[in-house]
Write a structure and sequence with these properties.
The radius of gyration is 20 Å and the shape is globular. With 414 residues, it is of the alpha/beta class. Strand 8, helix 8 and strand 9 form a beta-alpha-beta unit. The chain binds D-mannonic acid and magnesium ion.
Length: 414
Amino acid sequence: MQVANAEVLVANPGRNFVTLRVTTDDGFVGLGDATLNGRELAVAAYLSEHVAPLLMGRDAHQVEDTWQYLYRGAYWRRGPVTMAAVAAVDTALWDIKAKVAGLPLYQLLGGRSRSGLLVYGHASGMDLRELFESVREHLEKGYRAIRVQAGVPGLSSVYGVASSKNASVGDGGDARYDYEPARRSAVPVEERWDTRAYLRHIPTVFEAVRNEFGPELPLLHDAHHRLTPIQAAKLGKSLEPYDLFWLEDPTPAENQAALRRVREHTTTPLAIGEVFNSIWDYRELFEEQLIDYVRSAVTHAGGITALRRIFDYASVYQIKSGVHGPTDISPVGLAAAIHLGIAIPNFGIQEYMRHSPTTNELFRPSYTFADGTLAPSEAPGLGVDYDDTIAQAHPYQAAYLPVNRLLDGSMHDW
Ligand code: CS2
Ligand code: MG
């Protein structure tokens, strides 16, 4: 069974997605997500110019060898563009292998280890009234774990807050809550940031949320890479009374030693890794027990083959999965995460932002959301499709993530 075709498909059914479609000489079709938010066309070019030609005639069953071929054979290893391209090929070949076997993919990954994946949704508000409404809206929709992001007095827009001044929506998605941070614009929107105001305000938000919704509800927060090590330690400590499920990306991911400082001062669990794209990014963090949850996504960490290896490594240290699942991970990438998550022994939680109706019409995903959990279908393979007609009606549109500057104009982490 040889690879006969590899198409790089780019569409914007509410936001931009890059999808690889691999077809074998006997007609089996596999899909892979290669979406890198705000840099989509770089991965599309890497795939169409440098990878797709190399797949022609290859044995489609050789998933591991193809991974090694694209990773080692590239000479220039790692990095977000390379690893999103490798991920798309890997996922498509696993999709094909499972379809050939006539089994849902999770069966090839060891079968079910649980009935469904606990997920968390994104609640947010510029003030407490909006935030409480957003939390209630998610609870009514069946979510049983909630990420809380709130406006900061004095700042007109803050990461993760849908109703902040600069926020925008996909196409008819759930406007106020599952917003898309990448704005359709020729250049990135610029936001302003004040860390001291944020550090004063956020503990008061979690106190209010706990008072309103009680002690049981799992609450998560994303500091989105904006703090210095000691600021992160301070935040982690000040949030301890509110028993967070996790504090995510408190410091920029490059400086991994920073987390030693955070660990010294707080027991608030830490989740890191959505911008990581290889197992080597985790070694220090695992071996020194500096994190509790792995945030990498199949789409950005080199595919199912690579992310399963990362989870196996993490399990040695009792570190669990917490896979990245925002709207810029396509239904193909989310389906891959669901099949992997249902099988691995160290599943923790799965992020689940709902895609827009047009996105779901294009990809027709068969996974289901019920009672706060996601579950794969029994369809062979990933259980996702691709409608070319809808894709052609929704061409790529340039869109960039915002950039962030401190009040004095200095560049900061968004
Ligand atoms: C975020 C993402 O969901 C998250 O945890 O960090 O929304 C992130 O900002 C986007 O995926 C960037 O494309
Ligand atoms: Mg995040």
